[in-house]
Structures are given as structure tokens and as C-alpha cells.
Design brief:
This protein is an alpha/beta fold. It is about 50% helix and about 15% strand. The protein contains 18 helices and 15 strands. The chain has a 5-stranded parallel sheet with strand order 6-7-10-5-11, sandwiched between helices. Strands 4-3-12 form a 3-stranded mixed sheet. It has a 3-stranded antiparallel sheet with strand order 13-15-14. β8 and β9 (about 255-260) form a beta hairpin. α2 packs across α12 and α15 packs across α16. It starts with a helix and ends in a 5-residue tail after the last strand.
């Protein structure tokens, strides 16, 4: 290779007579993420999400994610979905929203879950009286049981006869069948559960529950995800997404158990630093736990959330679209759940058939084709393999919210647009994770400098974003940009250390 060719490949200037050519080495580019398709959520969820995003001033995808997760929680106990001859399963959804501190996650989630929180508050009002009645009934029951045992003890030193033993067994069996049970915990949701806590909640409280947290670090960093517990928690939560029975095994007699017919939806809102750790966790990836989650991460609006021109007397509680959403969700969440004698849910079975199945099958096949070695989703295979199932769940949730008996072809198409967003976003994040981080950060820094006059001085490092504000970090990236031919040193101090940089203009 000629010396000129080597210089060109390295991005160094090539001297040709009096002409100086500059050939910067191309930097890795960030793909533009797709926009969250709010319209695909439909007239109730979509319009509510749009208005929530306006009132709270959050990115649209955050609002869309919140209302979709809340709707799944409201619907999951009533409906299962049959995907033609492919199988049947829950309509539960697992959602994750990645957003930094100050993004108003709590405010948004509070409004999205308002009807559910109202119902929980109502149940809490009567809970103390219910607990008092239970304790009294329990004490009376225990005294009755003890009195039966005491009265059955043989007099003197006479052994108990077989007939007496049989009679006592029958009495105790009858009494044990009347053992008072504690009232259901007045909460449909929990934020930092252990596997044992989830089991007890689904056994004694609601058979349909939600893992909802506006600070998901409490879940991922809590006791349920400690080294000794995380395997059990992940396995149990994954089984609940599948609709499979869950079990608890204990050495103490009577502590083991088996629960079927339970449902769980989730919405975990986490900060980017937590998300990076979670999404890179080998256990969570290896067990397919993360592949079940629909993930949203949108560009922050911090710095542009202005109040000028807004009516201070008109907020979310005055918005008709949000009011319709709350009324619909309240009606769904208060619908009585059908259970058997063991507390297991007996949901109605909705079906994707006819034209709706044809539409779903095309969606399924289009995703499957993209899992090939040359396909768009080959690097997110675990997530994409569950995408058609998630689309069926989303379509069913949309249909029930809108008063339909089963998903129509239009619901499938809209769910397909939502899944396209989740798939594309996941593919972009995965591709960026495999790119050179320094190159991506260098490009971001260079774009910032271009937008601020094309020059940067060391004294202005404090104006940079927090991830580049450190002098050590900024200088390393600037050196990389100089070495690759994108910037040039504009000034140095007396000891030769660069103090100013400018964008290098490339001559044609």
C-alpha cells in the first residue's frame, strides 16, 4: 500500500502540490429511533396517553407505556386469548420504561393508575374492621378446636379407642374446613416483592396482580433480587407471564403449595444507569426474563417543559380524554372475577380467528423471516421470538378496552404497529451496544460543538452535558476527534497542552 493510501486510510492529510486534502475517518452513527405510535393505542388509550403526555410534559412513549400497562392489569383477570390453533394464554404485559431522574415518572404513573389506586383506597377503608373480625373469629375457632381435642382425651390412663380416634378425626376435619381466612390485602399491586411475597399475595389476596414501580431500582435492587433470591423471583415472574402454575417448596409441613390460574402484569420505570446494568445481566438475559418486556426509552424533554401559555385552572382532571380513560379503566377493574373453589381464575376465552387470524399470521411470519441470519431482528432473537405473542396480548387488551368481544383485524394491525416500534427500538439499542462507545460519544460531542458555534475552549467544559463535563472525559474524546480528522487544535497553553478546538473543514 502506498504512503498516500495509508495516510488516507488513517484520516491524515495528503499533500498534493499546494492542495491539502482532509479525509476524516467516519464515525459510528446513531440510528434515529422510531416515534412511539400513540394512534395505534386507539381512541381510548391513545387519546388519554396523548393528553397525559401534554399535561405531565413527558415523552409520548412514556405515557403510552403507562396506560397500556394499566389496561393490561385491568383486563388480565377476565380474558385469556386463543391464537387460532397455535395455543392460548394470558393477556398480561410486562413493560419497562427507561427515564432519568426528574422525568416525572411518578406523576405520570400516578395518573395512569388513578382508578386502580382509588379502588385500593376504598378497600383500605374497611380493612381494619375486616381484620378485627378475622382475629376474633380466628381466636374463637382455635378455642373451639382446642376444646374438642381436650374433651376427647381419655380419662385416667385409659388409651384412646379406635372408634374415639375416628370420631375425633371427623370432628377436626369438619372444624379445619371452617378455619377463618384473613381478608384480602387491600392492594392489587406491589413494588419490591420476593418470590414468597408474590406467592402469598396471589394466594390470599387478589389472583390478578401488578408489579408496578415508578422507581424500578427498588425491585431490581431489593431483597427479591438478591444473590440468593433472584433465581426464584425471576423464575416465578416468568411463569406468571406464561400463565403457568407457580409453586412454593418448603421443608416445614404445610408451607409448600401449588397455585394455578393467577395473572401478573408489570410496569417498571427505571433510570438509565439501572437499565444498563439490568439489560446486561447474564441471568436476566439467559432465563428469557428480559425478552418478555416491552421497553420504551425516549429522548428527554427536560429543559423544554415550559408553562407559558398554559391554563393553570385546566389540568389532567379536567381533560375529557383522560376522564373517558379513567371511567373505562374503573369499570374494567371493578368487574367481578370468576374463580373456582381454589381461588384460581376462570377467564373467558377470546379468540383470534377468521380474518383476524390471517392478519396475525402475516405479522407472525414477517417477524419470523427477520430472525434469519440476514434478518433485521437476528440480534434480538429472544425478544422477537415472543413478539407475535405480545402482539396478540396487546390486540386483546385494546379490543376489551374498546368494548369488543375479541380482537378484530384492525386491533391486530394496530398491535403490529406497536410491536414494530418495540422491535425496532430494541434492534437499535442492541446495535449501539455493540458499537464502539467512544465513537458514539465522540460523535455526540462533535454535534454539540457544531450546534454551539463550531469551537470549544477548555474553560467551557462545564457547559457540556454531564456525561462529558469532566475534563478527563472531554479531553479524551477531543483527542480522538483530532486523531480521526474531525477537529483541529485551535490553541494551546505555554506547556503545549491544548486549550481550544474547532471543527475541521474538509476541502473538496
Amino acid at each position: 500500500m502506498s504512503n498516500a493510501a495509508v495516510k488516507q486510510q488513517l484520516g491524515q492529510p495528503i499533500e498534493r502540490g499546494s492542495v491539502l486534502e482532509l479525509n476524516p475517518i467516519p464515525l459510528a452513527e446513531r440510528e434515529q429511533p422510531p416515534a412511539f405510535p400513540l394512534e395505534a393505542l386507539g381512541p381510548i388509550l391513545g387519546e388519554a396517553a396523548e393528553r397525559l403526555a401534554f399535561h405531565v410534559q413527558t415523552p409520548p412513549g412514556m405515557a403510552g407505556q403507562s396506560v397500556l400497562a394499566a389496561a393490561a392489569l385491568a383486563v388480565q383477570g377476565q380474558i385469556d386469548i386463543a391464537r387460532g390453533p397455535i395455543g392460548r394464554g394470558p393477556v398480561s404485559l410486562f413493560c419497562m420504561t427507561v427515564a432519568g431522574s426528574g422525568e416525572r415518572k411518578s406523576s405520570l404513573d400516578g395518573l395512569a393508575l388513578a382508578p386502580i389506586r382509588d379502588l385500593e383506597a376504598e378497600k383500605r377503608q374497611g380493612h381494619p374492621e375486616a381484620m378485627a373480625s378475622f382475629k376474633a373469629a380466628r381466636e374463637a375457632w382455635e378455642m373451639r378446636r382446642e376444646s374438642v381435642i381436650s374433651a376427647s382425651k381419655p380419662k385416667g390412663r385409659q388409651p384412646m379407642k379406635e372408634a374415639e380416634q375416628t370420631f375425633l378425626q371427623e370432628q377436626l376435619a369438619e372444624i379445619d374446613g371452617q378455619e377463618p381466612q384473613p381478608p384480602a390485602t387491600p392492594s392489587m399491586t406491589f413494588a419490591e416483592p420476593t418470590a414468597e411475597g408474590i406467592y402469598r399475595h396471589l394466594q390470599h389476596s387478589y389472583p390478578s396482580a401488578g408489579l408496578f414501580s415508578d422507581e424500578g431500582v427498588g425491585f431490581f435492587g431489593g431483597h427479591g433480587m438478591s444473590e440468593e433470591s433472584r433465581g426464584r423471583t425471576v423464575a416465578m415472574v416468568s411463569k406468571l407471564w406464561d400463565g403457568s402454575p407457580i409453586t412454593r417448596t418448603r421443608g416445614t409441613a404445610g408451607e409448600s403449595g401449588f397455585l394455578s390460574g393467577r395473572r401478573l402484569s408489570a410496569h417498571l420505570m427505571v433510570q438509565p444507569v439501572v437499565a444498563a446494568k439490568v439489560l446486561g445481566d447474564p441471568l436476566l438475559q439467559g432465563q428469557g426474563f428480559l425478552a418478555r418486556f416491552l421497553i420504551v426509552q425516549e429522548t428527554s424533554l427536560v429543559g423544554s417543559r415550559l408553562l407559558k401559555g398554559r391554563d393553570p385552572k385546566r389540568g389532567a382532571h379536567h381533560d375529557p380524554a383522560i376522564g373517558r380513560y379513567w371511567e373505562t379503566l374503573a369499570s374494567l377493574i371493578r368487574e367481578p372475577l370468576h374463580t373456582d373453589e381454589n381461588g384460581a381464575l376462570s377467564p373467558r376465552l377470546a379468540s383470534i380467528d377468521g380474518a383476524a387470524f390471517d392478519t396475525w399470521a402475516r405479522l407472525h411470519d414477517s417477524i419470523e423471516w427477520q430472525l434469519s441470519p440476514d434478518g433485521r431482528f437476528r440480534d434480538v432473537q429472544a425478544f422477537a421470538s415472543k413478539a407475535a405473542d405480545n402482539a396478540a396480548r396487546i390486540a386483546t387488551v385494546l379490543a376489551i378496552v374498546e368494548g369488543e368481544h375479541s380482537p378484530t383485524p384492525q386491533h391486530i394491525e394496530r398491535a403490529g404497529r406497536l410491536m414494530a416500534y418495540y422491535l425496532e427500538s430494541m434492534a437499535i439499542r442492541t446495535a449501539e451496544a455493540r458499537q464502539d462507545v467512544q465513537e458514539l460519544q465522540a460523535r455526540d460531542l462533535m454535534e454539540w460543538i457544531k450546534a454551539h458555534g463550531g469551537e470549544l475552549h477548555a474553560r467551557d467544559f462545564k457547559r457540556l452535558g454531564s456525561e462529558y463535563r469532566s475534563a478527563t472525559k472531554a479531553r479524551a474524546l477531543l483527542t480522538f476527534l483530532v486523531d480521526t480528522g474531525h477537529m483541529q487544535i485551535a490553541s494551546s497553553n505555554q506547556s503545549g497542552k491544548p486549550t481550544g478546538w474547532r471543527i475541521r473543514e474538509v476541502q473538496s
